[in-house]
Every structure is written in C-alpha cells, then in structure tokens.
Amino acid sequence: MEVKIAKASTMRKGNYIIIEDEPSVVTDNQSSKTTGRGCIRCKIEAVGMISGKKRIELVSGGDNVKIPVIEKKNAQILSVGNKKVNVMDMENYESFDLDITDDVDGIPTEGGQATYWIIGTHKVLKQAR
C-alpha cells in the first residue's frame, strides 16, 4: 500500500490514517500536556474504512504516522444487485463488483455514474449519481 508520512499532532477529524494496517478516518485527536521530557502525547481515535472497527492509538505528537494514498476514480454502473453493484471503469474499461455500504452517497441505478476509491488493494464505492 502506498503511504505518505505526517506528524501525529497534525491529524484532525476527517483526515485519513493507517492504524493496525487498516486505512481509517480520524474521528478525534486529543493532545495532552507536555511530559517531563517536553513532548506532547496524542490520543488518535479512528474508524476503519473497510471493517468499520473503532481503533485508538497513543503516540507522541512528534512521531510520524502513515497516511494512505487514496486514488479516486469514476465508473459507469452496469447492474445493481443485492448489496452489490457491477461497474465499469471509465479509463481502462475494467469491469468489477463493489459492495453497497451504508455510507454510499446517493442511490445506485443502472446506467448511472459512480465514484469509487482505490485504497491499497481494496476498492470502495463512495458515490452514485
């Protein structure tokens, strides 16, 4: 999985981070007072983008954290099934299935357009129009 690096103290609500090898969305980042050594402690709370599992990580504010590189692509919806949608990528014409989750923006309809994200080896449907 392709990643970027950032300081833990810069993480804000809505940012993306990798915790326990899963791309996650930051829901909260609480900073504590400086310790005896002069460093800030951060308590980063995040929800996994694939599993939906809540995770908490305690790190120093100056520590590096991994940020996933997310590729956003467009596709045409070919068919809609039970909690699945078959789409064709608009650039390379590859056809594949995506899961319809609760956080999808819009209702998938045949012949419509979709936006999906490639996060590592996973493809996630984000928007249907």
List the helices and strands and how they pair.
Layout: E1 3-7, E2 16-19, E3 22-31, E4 41-48, E5 54-60, E6 64-68, E7 70-80, E8 84-89, E9 95-99, E10 113-119, E11 122-128
Antiparallel strand pairs: 1-6, 2-3, 3-4, 4-5, 7-8, 7-10, 8-9, 10-11
Question: In brief, what are we looking at here?
Answer:
This protein is mainly β and 129 residues long. It is built from no helices and eleven strands. A hairpin with a 5-residue loop joins strand 4 (41-48) and strand 5.
Task: Note down, in words, how this protein is organized.
This protein is mainly β and 129 residues long. The chain is elongated and about 60 Å long. It contains no helices and eleven strands. The chain has strands at residues 3-7, 16-19, 22-31, 41-48, 54-60, 64-68, 70-80, 84-89, 95-99, 113-119, 122-128. A five-stranded antiparallel beta sheet has the order 9-8-7-10-11, with no helix packed on it. The protein has a four-stranded antiparallel beta sheet with strand order 2-3-4-5, with no helix packed on it. It has a two-stranded antiparallel sheet with strand order 1-6.
Supply the key terms:
single chain, 129 residues, SH3 type barrels, OB fold (Dihydrolipoamide Acetyltransferase, E2P), 2 domains, five-stranded antiparallel sheet, 0% helix
N/C terminus separation: 29 Å
Give the domain tally: 2
Number of beta strands: 11
The share of residues in extended strands comes to: over 45%
Estimate the mean pLDDT confidence: 88
Structural class: mainly beta
Number of helices: 0
Topology as H/E string? EEEEEEEEEEE
Identify low-pLDDT runs: none
